[in-house]
Amino acid sequence: MLGVGAVGVALGRPAQEAIQSTVSSTAPGLGGIVPAAGGFRIYTVTGGYPAMPVDEYRLEVTGAVARPLSLTFDDLAELPQTQMTKDFQCVTGWRVDDVPWSGVLLRDVLIAAGANTSQTALRFFSFDGAYTESLTMAQALRDDVLVASSMFGKPITREHGGPVRLYVAPMYGYKSLKWMSGIEVVDEVVPGYWEQRGYDIDAWVGASNGRNDEPIV
Ligand SMILES: Nc1nc2c(c(=O)[nH]1)N[C@H]1C(S)=C(S)[C@@H](COP(=O)(O)O)O[C@H]1N2
Ligand SMILES: [Mo]
User: Fold this and answer.
1) Which domains does the chain have, with CATH numbers?
2) What is the tens place of the pLDDT at every residue in 72-123?
3) Which atom belonging to ligand 1 lies closest to the Cα atom of 194?
4) Burial class for 80, CB neighbours closer than 10 Å (0-12, 13-18, 19+)
5) How far is CA 110 from the centre of its chain?
């Protein structure tokens, strides 16, 4: 990681992200290639794709909540389900149009936990052990922020961050944390992995990071 970091400093953030991207995986029987769905590029800051059997999956909801939760995949399936078809835009320039997503609104997870919505922020954790993200409480309560369990009508693949990832529709892709293991309700925003490395904390598509992409509606 130290080596990659040094290259990233020398070449700038987009180069670093490119170095850490890949669209292939070693899957015996598939010729060693698992193409990214629909034009996505697969990103991982750890150099690997963590594996999580769906029956071992847990989403811990902690911090300023009345009811700390440890949700299984089936628990999530029993919460109200939401579907949306929206674009996905990475800050490095690529965009995938009209991706069908489904899962549970982050808002509905927060309601289930009895989150204190007068707290100002949330932190998100990945079972890759490295990646983190943040949202303000107001952002988290929007109706286009999803704890996603499905993309393109299928379970989210390991490469795309399954069993469960975040999908923050109106924001650049780095907000959409993969391999999600934890949500913590906190009293101030803690910048996430890429935010600590220079990207904007408020990551609105078309109105941040010096880019003028079409907003995601
Ligand atoms: N855990 C984790 N989540 C992550 C990333 C990552 O490297 N690790 N990359 C982010 C970035 S910059 C983008 S653009 C999207 C890419 O999603 P994809 O790999 O499914 O295409 O994932 C985001 N979530
Ligand atoms: Mo990205």
Assistant:
1) 50-197 (3.90.420.10)
2) 999 999 999 999 999 999 999 999 999 999 999 999 999 999 999 999 999 9
3) 12
4) exposed
5) 17
Residue with CA at minimum distance from ligand 1 atom 6: 44
Which of 22, 34, 40, 43 for a ligand 1 pocket mutation test, highest count of atoms within 8 Å of Cβ?
Answer: 43
Single-letter code of the amino acid located at 190: V
Query: What are 192-205's pLDDT values in tens digits?
Result: 999 999 999 999 99
The two tokens of residue 140 are 């988290």
Q: Look at residue 38 in the predicted model and tell me its pLDDT.
A: 82
Predicted model pTM: 0.87
Would you say 163 and 80 are in contact if contact means Cβ atoms under 8 Å apart? no
Q: Is 126 in the pocket of ligand 1 (CB under 6 A)?
A: yes
Which of the listed residues 174, 193, 205 should we mutate to test ligand 1's pocket, taking the one with most ligand atoms within 8 A of CB? 174
